[in-house]
Amino acid sequence: MTAQSTDIATYNFAYLDEQTKRMIRRAILKGIAIPGYQVPFASREMPMPYGWGTGGVQVTASIIGPDDVLKVIDQGADDTTNAVSIRAFFKKVANVAVTTETAKATIIQTRHRIPEHPLTAGQVLVYQVPIPEPLRFLEPRETETRKMHALEEYGLMHVKLYEDIAKHGRIATTYAYPVKVEGRYVMDPSPTPKFDNPKMHRSPALQLFGAGREKRIYAVPPFTDVVSLDFEDHPFEIQTFDQPCALCGAENVYLDEVILDDHGGHMFVCSDTDYCEKRREEGHRGHLAPETDLASEKLEPAQ
Amino acid sequence: MTDEPLLRVSALSKFYGSRVGCDNVSFDLWPGEVLAVVGESGSGKTTLLNCLSTRLLPSSGTASYRMRDGQFRELYRMSEAERRFLMRTDWGFVHQNPADGLRMTVSAGANVGERLMAVGDRHYGKIRATAVDWLSRVEIEQDRIDDEPRAFSGGMRQRLQIARNLVTGPRLVFMDEPTGGLDVSVQARLLDLLRGLVTDLGLAAIVVTHDLAVARLLSQRMMVMKDGRVVESGLTDRVLDDPRAPYTQLLVSSILQV
């Protein structure tokens, strides 16, 4: 390839070489064809440590095109180190447009949240997954867990839920809550709060999961059944919050606890920063929202 | 009673390279019958048991099992999925070391309930009620249901393992030295319990043991193995009271008298 005068001359488009992208796309296609099945792939070294989203970055790099608009969130927030760095990375190596607005993005790479704003057909949600195997902490042997998936032996998954009820009186698993995809594979939805599990069910958006260290890719195609496991007498429930968001007053959203001082002061605010800002722009106010408009001291939008 | 055996074993052999595991073993096992396999260490008892329970594949020979629908199925021709299903529904396997047969990091209740959940039981209350029932049947106090087996004594672990295996109402149970490593009074209670359960439930069982007293108490029939071959078989009382093969005579006369 001849040297170009652009900033991205030293990289192939989207950092990965074309052969690697083809390999990852094949894994993605296989994942889509077998919803919930973990497809092994030859994960590459990325210019970031394992655990920082190497799997998600490789998936995003393989599917992103020059016309895409990228949004990156970390626990719902657009402004944390991980999200800012990954957004800057793709801005540099793929020269794509970036956004913090859920509705405007075509690809949303996420660490552990699904945006509150409903996703639409044509959008792709890319999850960063630390441990893709839902049975891992119950059965350490990979040979055995693969066999259990192959033979659909999922009794063990319910043993974990049974233990929860026996110990805590209810299913105490609050994140990485196991789901069954299209009535076949049991899947780890990555450590998203179980609050987000219902959003995966028959979502119009394509959901891709990349685990870089564990070298696995899996997928949930649009409009696929995703059912959270439970017992007949202890049905699946999502978290509920006693109070609305302290800044925007939103209800029925996932809230983060923010410590305000060292005297026990705290508030609950939307974990989805974009959603919260949008609501405040529309004039919604929570009980701790400042009188003046927050927009001026709002966190730096993505460059 | 049916006049057909539950398990038919014919010319079963297992070789580890040139070494013999078990050689040319044939027998039939009838429903409700307890067969003891005795012999010294290295005589091939455990190899035979592992082959029968399909944990090992034999080098040659066949074994067919009469399924619940009355049809005989050749064990080594079944798919792995079918064999594993059989393993956790119609069969049980009691290991010598309970840690091999239990999940040591989940509670006793979940250990008993696992098989139920594996076959599709999805009602917590019912699973728990069954677990409570089974714990009492193996003489474990109800308030230990949420304790991990790590906190149990050796005898309790073994009883828990038995409960875990019997909860799905199996018809055939394999036992590998079920009383090994337990002190004599605990052994006696466990044997008593096993004998009761086997009679009540009409279980068929194959018990591997080096302890002739265990064989005498539990089994109706026994096979004596040496160097991978069956040297003598017959009714337990007959073999123990009137041993014919020289090796059996040696074995019987080696029992220490108190």
Description:
- Chain B: Keywords: ATP-binding, Lyase, Nucleotide-binding.
- Chain B: This is Phosphonate C-P lyase system protein PhnK.
- Chain B: It comes from Mesorhizobium japonicum.
- Chain B: InterPro entries: AAA+_ATPase, ABC_transporter-like_ATP-bd, ABC_transporter-like_CS, P-loop_NTPase, PhnK.
- The complex is a heterodimer of chains A (303) and B (258).
- Chain A contains 7 helices and 12 strands.
- Chain A has a 7-stranded mixed sheet with strand order 1-9-8-5-4-2-3. Chain A has a 3-stranded antiparallel sheet with strand order 7-6-10. In chain A, strands 11-12 form a two-stranded antiparallel sheet.
- In chain A, helix 1 (18-33) packs across helix 2.
- Chain A has 303 residues and is of the alpha/beta class.
- Chain B is an alpha/beta fold.
- Chain B has 2 domains: 1-72 and 170-258, P-loop containing nucleotide triphosphate hydrolases (Rossmann fold, 3-Layer(aba) Sandwich); 91-169, no CATH class.
- Chain B has helices spanning 45-52, 80-89, 98-101, 108-118, 124-137, 154-166, 184-201, 212-218, 236-241, 246-253, and strands spanning 7-16, 19-29, 34-38, 60-66, 72-74, 91-94, 172-176, 204-209, 221-226, 229-235.
- In chain B, helix 4 (108-118) runs parallel beside helix 6 (154-166).
- Chain B is globular.
- The N and C termini of chain B lie far apart (40 Å).
- Chains A and B meet through helix 5 of A and helix 2, helix 4 and helix 5 of B.
